[in-house]
Every structure is written in C-alpha cells, then in structure tokens.
Design brief:
heterodimer; A: 180 residues; alpha+beta; five-stranded antiparallel β-sheet; 5 strands; 41% helix; 23% strand; B: 199 residues; mainly alpha; two-stranded antiparallel ribbon; 9 helices; 72% helix
C-alpha cells in the first residue's frame, strides 16, 4: 500500500511540475499566437471582400443562435455594410475546421477561406485548396448548399468536405435568419 | 564511454534514421522539402536534448514500475512547449509541419534514447547523446529532404536550381518515392560506414 502511495505521489509531483511549465509557456506565447491568427484572418477577409475598407467585429448576441458560428465581421464600404465575413468552426476528421465565409448584402457568397484545419494531409487538407473552395464563389446564399449537388466534395475526404460545407451552411443560415 | 564517442555515435555510427531506423514516420512525411526536414530535425533535437536532460536528472528517483508514464509526461511536455514556441515565433514552419509537430511525442527516437541512454547515464552525457542523435536525425532528414526536393520539385530550400525545362519527378515527393530515396541513402550510408569500420 505504501508503495502505491509513493508511486502515486511521484507521478503527482512530476505531472504538477509539467503542468506548471506548460502553463507558463502558454502564457508567454498565447498572445502572440492569437495576434498572428487575427492578422491572418484579416488578410483572408481582405482577399474575400477586397472592396471593403474596414472590417468590424459585431457584438450582436444573435449570432450565437446558429451552431458553429464563432464570430461575425461586418465589411464596411464608405460607412455602409457591404457584406459579412462569418467565422465558423465545424467538426472535421481531425478536429475543428475554421471557415471564413464572405457573403454580400445582396445574398451571394463571395468566397470562402479555410482559416485553420488539422485534416489528413493530401486528403482532407484539400478543402483548403482553391479547387474546392472556388466552387462556392458566386453561389446564392438563399438556402442551404448540398454536398455533391451544389458543390463537389473532395474525393476520398467526405468528412472534411462535410465540415467545410457545414461551416458555409451555418453562415448562410445566420445570414438569412439574423443578419439580413 | 567517452563523450566524443557518445556524440559521434548519435551523429553517424548509430544514426537514428540510417542505422537505428527509428522515427521513420515523420522522416518520410516531412522530408518533402529541405526546409521542412531541417525545421523538423531542429524541433526534434530541442525536445530530445530537453527530455534526455530531465529524464537523466530524475533517473535516481524514478521507480522502474512507472518509468514509462514518466518518460511520456516529460517528452509530451517538451513537445507541447516547443509546439507553442514554434507556433508563436516560426508560424510558417508551424503551418508546414502541421500535425507532425505534436507527433514528435510518439517519435520513437525520443523514447528510445530515454530508455536506452538517459535513464542510465549522467545528465551531461545524456545531453550530449540527445544533441548527437538529434543532429544525426536532422542531418539525415535534411539530406534526404534535399534530394527529394531537388529531383521532385526542382528546387533546394525553396530556390529553383534545375534548368527551366526540367520535368520534376513528382513521385519522389510522394511517400513511395520517399521510401525509394531512403532505401538508396541507407545503402550508400551502409557502404560508407562499413568502409570506415574496416579501416
């Protein structure tokens, strides 16, 4: 019995020290990582809606009414809203897939960008490539998009493709129910 | 065994990739470009040195029964710390390595050196062993990656060096091509070290 307690205590001490070290490293690096992610997202947003001169994060609580929606940015042109960039996180094969969907106020999808994903290299990661993403450009945001009807999936990567289209559909749903 | 032998073994004569043949998974996966191979090698070296030092420091108080969980905790902690640092300060490398950075935790090289060396040797020698094996891993990985990048994409470290009309053999940057190049490299290396040993 004493042996087990001793073993347990040693493990406890080692894991506690390790947790402490990780927590310190996290504190040091978290801000920088978040900053860089924000910069990258802004860069994507400028790609999606190049005519906008500013992007403002909306604090409308209604955006949380749709599953998967994380943030909504209003794209402003000369002070008026010209469109929205909606950030969604949906479950893929290897974790969450973060999609940025740009929708014009007139209800067309301008473009999408995959902001982050941890899908299978050479398979699921193809959702981040132009070949897949460009299919969304110009589609109507009137109603939900169907995989392999409106948009072709990446062959061999159904789960990843589904994660992508779910993200876009969540943006479409939000646009129609809340933002319009 | 003296310190110089420990280092030389790790670097050449007991090279993790070319002799011990451990850590094959990340070797094939990230050796598509020289920069990725080099970056991965350095990240793994950092983890290896750190974990070897800590495991060696703890070796007198580590009960045999729970040594494996303790190794894993130490290794995983270092990998996670390195991952956070690379994410924050070398974001391009982080994106390129993707899932293979956290996978360093299960890179056999690190656990192998912990079990075979760090657990039984002094802190200083363990650090040197970590450095030798890490650099050996980096060297082999970078050479392999450079060859694959040169013939498979026509460039080295991102700079195009092949003549304009060169058609890259894209199979070389696929896993199957990786196996082929690795096999050739192993054969050449074995001949080289056999000669040295017999001299």
């Amino acid at each position: 019995m004493r042996d087990i307690i001793k073993l347990g205590l040693i493990l406890l001490i080692i894991t506690a020290v390790s947790a402490g070290a990780l927590s310190i490293t996290n504190d040091i690096t978290k801000e920088i990582i978040d900053e860089k992610a924000l910069e990258k997202n802004l860069a994507y947003m400028k790609e999606i809606l190049p005519d906008a001169d500013d992007f403002e994060l909306t604090d409308d609580p209604g955006i949380l009414s749709v599953d998967g929606v994380e943030e909504v940015y209003e794209a402003l042109q000369g002070g008026n809203i010209s469109g929205y960039v909606i950030k969604t996180i949906t479950s893929g094969y290897g974790g969450g897939v973060t999609i940025l969907t740009g929708i014009n106020v007139d209800g067309t999808i301008v473009a999408i960008r995959v902001a982050s994903q941890t899908e299978t290299p050479e398979l699921g990661t193809k959702i981040a490539e132009d070949e897949f993403g460009s299919q969304f450009e110009g589609l109507s945001a009137e109603k939900e998009l169907k995989l392999n009807e409106d948009v072709d999936q990446v062959s061999g990567a159904t789960v990843s493709s589904r994660a992508a289209i779910n993200g876009v559909n969540a943006s479409i749903e939000l646009f129609n129910n809340v933002l319009k | 065994m003296n310190v110089r032998k420990v280092f030389a073994d790790g670097l050449i004569f007991n090279n993790p990739i070319l002799v011990q043949m451990v850590g094959m998974c990340p070797t094939l996966a990230v050796s598509n470009t020289a920069m990725n191979g080099f970056g991965m090698g350095l990240a793994a070296t950092a983890v290896l040195i750190g974990s070897n030092i800590v495991i060696s420091m703890l070796r007198k108080v580590t009960p045999d029964e729970i040594r494996i969980p303790i190794f894993i905790v130490v290794i995983a902690t270092f990998v996670t710390m390195i991952e956070m640092v690379v994410h924050a300060y070398f974001t391009a490398l982080y994106d390129a390595l993707g899932i293979f950075l956290p996978l360093i935790v299960v890179n056999c090289i690190i656990l192998a050196r912990a079990e075979a060396f760090a657990f039984k040797n002094s802190v200083f020698k363990s650090a040197v062993d970590g450095l030798g094996n890490g650099l050996g891993f980096t060297l082999a990985l970078t050479i392999l990656a450079a060859i694959r990048e040169l013939f498979g994409s026509g460039s080295i470290f991102g700079k195009t060096v092949m003549w304009g009309s060169y058609e890259p053999m894209s199979i070389i940057v696929q896993p199957s091509g990786g196996f082929l190049v690795l096999g050739l490299l192993l054969a050449i290396f074995a001949t080289f070290t056999a000669k040295k040993a017999s001299v």
